[in-house]
Amino acid sequence: MTRTVPPVACVGEPRLTAGFAEFGRLDLLAHEEVHGPIGPMEPAALLRLAEAIDLKGKGGAGFPFARKLRAVLESCERQDLSAVVVVNATEGEPASWKDKVLLTRAPHLILDGAALAAFALDAEEIVIGVADDDVGRPSLAEALQERRMPVPTTIVTVPHRFISGEGGALVNGINGLPHIPPGTKKRSSDSGVGGLPTLLSNAETYSQLAVAARIGPYEYAALGTDDEPGTVLLTVTGSAKRPAVVECAAGTPLREILDLCEVPPGPGILMGGYHGKWITAAAADRAEVSRKGLTAVGGTLGAGIIVPLGADTCPLGEAAQVVRYLAGESAGQCGPCKMGLPDLARSVDLAVSGSAPVELVRAAAGDVKGRGACSHPDGTARFALSAMEVFADDLRLHATGEGCGKRVKGTMGLPGAPDANPQKLTLDWSRCDGHGLCAHVVPDFIRLDGNGYPAFPPTPVPTWLREGALKAVKVCPELALRLVRAE
């Protein structure tokens, strides 16, 4: 699968994107000309730097980098083991492109940051995880041929799936296990790649570290806010007429970014990606691009993903598609994911179709929150609940059964082409005797009502449940259940 990296823009002084306009992709010579030399740092010095700039992970969770680094240092000393440095450049979030921009245009910044960490930890190796979409690996491999790294450095390719970017899933993949999160939560700083203490962080995080090591904490803090110094990389897609990866200083008005990308008026904007939260257009007008600024208006920075919706699409239908996708991306190894997320997707479908109250969505979200082996159930529940809140007016229109009158255009950046043959279940009530076999075959989509008769959303059957729906049709003894094309 070949994917095209979007254009790059900058508001204010470029740092991570410096040299892009002049060189396009920065090879080693161009990289050194633009950014200048960099030398190794001792552990204490690197810790002080990370703490001074309050560097937090740019992959979504926002965990302080200095705490990760200290935890690995202490674990190495306690266990008398070597460390491994892992760069998470998998970017499994379909709507995100910022790490791919760094891989394809500034790979040496990523390698600089990883090399700094490896020297400070006296690491055994560096491992860089990339997706199997053929976007970032060629440029990264070329960069490794252009330079000498302080320790052996390898590239590991993982499936381009949403959950492949989860830290535990990446460690599992590097260790030769299935590319899914581990069944139990564990700290990679204690036991990660090869059972060794592992420093794992996002590609942008290492790039920011490389910039800060060159210019120092004071100049680094010349951009951004007091709470969040430096710059931020954002991916702006959705209804934007000029989708782009944008670098800006933390604290930049969100409206400035939206205007730069020519985002038309619409009902809402998703902040932080599929595990993020929706905000209204009014909230966007007063928001600043920072964790603190976006939290103040009910949003989240997350992995720096901004997906605005146009006025010509059904926002609830768009959200429902994403919840179905996230349910299908489950690792399927714990109850909240295997059973809870399909139930949440079904509840959202029912609410959007006007067949059930929003309380059903809240109940389904409550059943998965805080109970998963990873953060996937929590993030999916957060996304679904946020949509129900921000699009409450649309939900009231849908509650009448007539809907908002808008079609779902599919602007959320979901992978793959739209379903060429969407199908839905129908029931011939003159034939149905309430045997209930269909609900046993595909319980994730069909339930039995209070009278023992099948109940299911009038929306298309999700592709991952299509096979089960076909089986349900075949086992119906009265031939009452049909699978027909959804118009």
Automatic annotation (TrEMBL):
Entry keyword set: 4Fe-4S, Flavoprotein, FMN, Iron, Iron-sulfur, Metal-binding
NADH-ubiquinone oxidoreductase 51kDa subunit iron-sulphur binding domain ranges (all copies): 319-397
Domain of life: Bacteria
Coiled coil: none
Cofactor(s) for this UniProt protein: [4Fe-4S] cluster; FMN
Family annotation (Pfam families): Complex1_51K, Fer4_15, NADH_4Fe-4S
Residues in NADH-ubiquinone oxidoreductase 51kDa subunit FMN-binding domain copies: 53-209
Family: Belongs to the complex I 51 kDa subunit family.
Protein name: NADH:ubiquinone oxidoreductase subunit F (NADH-binding)/ferredoxin
